[in-house]
Amino acid sequence: MGNTFVTLFWRQRLLNQAVQRLEDRDFRVVRLAAGQWSTEQDMHRAIATALQFPDYYGHNLDALNDCLGDVACYGGYGDSAEGAGLVLTLTDYDRFAAACPRAAQVVLDIIADRARRAAVLQRRLICLLHSNDPDIRFDPVGAMPVMWNSDEWLDANRRG
Is residue 90 within 8 Å of 34, Cβ to Cβ? Predict the structure, then answer.
């Protein structure tokens, strides 16, 4: 997490070691086999089941953003907000990225953004991403512009 909330692994051994260290520190680890997702809907079903999203989950990227935000900031549905944090481990992500490149990128962006927001509330969300492709690349995730505070957001409120 020192550099990013989404960390990429190629060697399964290193991923397993990282997961073990986090489990030893009382993180809740949710393992998802992204290589089995050939469609965006496959991804939504798997994540919704693993994180026990409510029945009203909309199975789209906006709904993922909303429900993952709840889990990251307040604990899982039915969980308490206690514990070290949540680790999402997505294996064989290169296969999902090949099948659904836009969704794969957006999912990582959502996770990074939600992890940053959770950190503000002193919660932790970490994503460990496994790829069989040692050359895989993703666009930056979780980037946010420097923004004016809410009282000075309007240009008129900073003039005069």
Answer: yes
Quickly state the pLDDT bin for 148 (edges 50, 70, 90).
confident
Tokens in use for 139?
């666009």
Residues comprising the chain, all counted: 160
Say how far apart CA 57 and CA 104 lie, in whole Å: 19
Q: Residues 87, 22: contact at Cβ < 8 Å?
A: yes
Closest CA to 27 of 127, 112, 117: 127
Amino acid at 31: R
- Helix (H), strand (E), coil (C) string for 117-154: HHHHCCCCEEEEEECCCCCCCCCCCCCCCCCCCCCCCC
Work out the number of other CB atoms within 10 angstroms of the CB of residue 86: 25
Tokens of 18: 């990282």
**What are 68-100's pLDDT values in tens digits?**
999 888 877 555 555 678 999 999 999 999 999
